[in-house]
Amino acid sequence: MPLDIVVGAQWGDEGKGRIVDNMAAEADVVARYNGGDNAGHTVTVGEQVFKLHLVPSGIVHRHTVGVLGNGMVINPATLLEEIESLRAAGITISPERLRISHAAHLITPAHRALDQGHEAARGRNSIGTTGRGIGPSYVDKAARRGLRAASMGDPEAFGREVQDQVETVNQQLIKLFDMQPLDAQSIASEYADYARQLAPHIADTSGFLSDQLSENRTVLAEGAQGTLLDLDHGTYPFVSSSTTTAAGALSGLGVGVRPVRRVIGVTKAFQTRVGAGPFPTEVEGELAERLRGSGSNPWDEYGTTTGRPRRVGWLDTVLLRYSVRVNGMTELAFTKLDVLTGLDPIRVCIAYRDQAGEHRSLPFGPSNLADFEPVYEELPGWERDLTSAATWDELPLQAQAYIRRVEDLSEVPIRQVSVGPERDQLIRLG
């Protein structure tokens, strides 16, 4: 009964989608366990580029079943658009192939308006949310007034629930944010139609996953964002609204600890983040432009969901060790190694320094970064193009040395190395 969990080891955007896509070739079920359409995973198959925000990345493999877990918050409009785009690309999406937890919560335009209102009200203290209603939907969930997917089983009654919710939120939009009210009746009608289309996909996904694991089928759990955006364990308050760590897979899918076989942390060979918040190893200028790319390629460092340019910097192994610890990672997948080609030297953060000296870890986790500066180690770079490398021996010795040094610093083995965006540009180690 193997359950493998894929989790981001940084601030998200680590390339989890392509790792999940690769691992899904040997999985029966791929299940997304947290977040909403503020996350985006990119999968490249030949000339086709799939940008997925809600549907698990493994759905591109025609033999898999995709699950949207109870830990998610789902915008029905986004989900239906995504389903149609997959169908247009020749991917079969049926109720048997895509199942939505009856306990997943839903996002409405009212949540999006609240999100944007709150972010605007913060002014200079904004935290860089995507404005897609993720936080307000989780707030409603915690306040026990949320809309759950099970309600879509009765589209007319669901429409009335949505109308009541929008009318209630309109009062807040008017009084708190001086915003125009939303058309509650029109939104209710629209969401009732969404319910008619999505109701066949609503299922007891916890029971389904339990059955699959009992029958010794492989379940691959896919997280959104990354460890450093975890609500509890990230760079608070510059975090997401859900549990992004491996523990979130268990609560976000309704499965127990016993089936867990591997926890695969995905990390870039450097570091990126979108939005505000601390970033000790951030670089700017020509080096930043070199790491970020121009934006002309789907794999350049621009948000899959927002299109915003990502902040970039050197790999931070202080934070990487932290991610390994809080997730119980058994291995790492190392992505975008090819991007470092031509840089010499390559820097990696091995510790932090403050007035008290050097630290390999932080006393209060990654929310406590303001008074620290990175301590770097420099490693030799390489000039040879990596994108055609298919084995360990085909990597330059300097690239091999960099990988081994990161293994030493993170204290966990690297089992996969990505040297390009295509499916076959992935080297398996051990």
Descriptive account of the structure:
Helix 3 runs parallel beside helix 5 and helix 5 (155-177) packs antiparallel against helix 6. The chain has helices at 16-24, 76-88, 109-122, 134-142, 155-177, 184-198, 205-214, 246-253, 285-292, 317-327, 397-410; strands at residues 3-8, 29-32, 41-45, 48-52, 65-68, 73-74, 98-101, 105-106, 202-203, 219-222, 260-268, 271-273, 282-283, 311-313, 315-316, 331-335, 346-354, 357-359, 373-379, 414-418, 426-428. The protein folds into two domains: 3-93 and 204-428, Adenylosuccinate Synthetase, subunit A, domain 3 (Adenylosuccinate Synthetase, Chain A, domain 3); 105-201, Adenylosuccinate Synthetase, subunit A, domain 2. The two termini are 22 Å apart. It is built from eleven helices and 21 strands. The strands form five sheets. A ten-stranded mixed β-sheet has the order 9-7-5-2-10-1-11-16-20-21, sandwiched between helices. With 430 residues, the protein is of the alpha/beta class. 51% of the residues are buried. 31% of the residues lie in helices and 21% in strands.
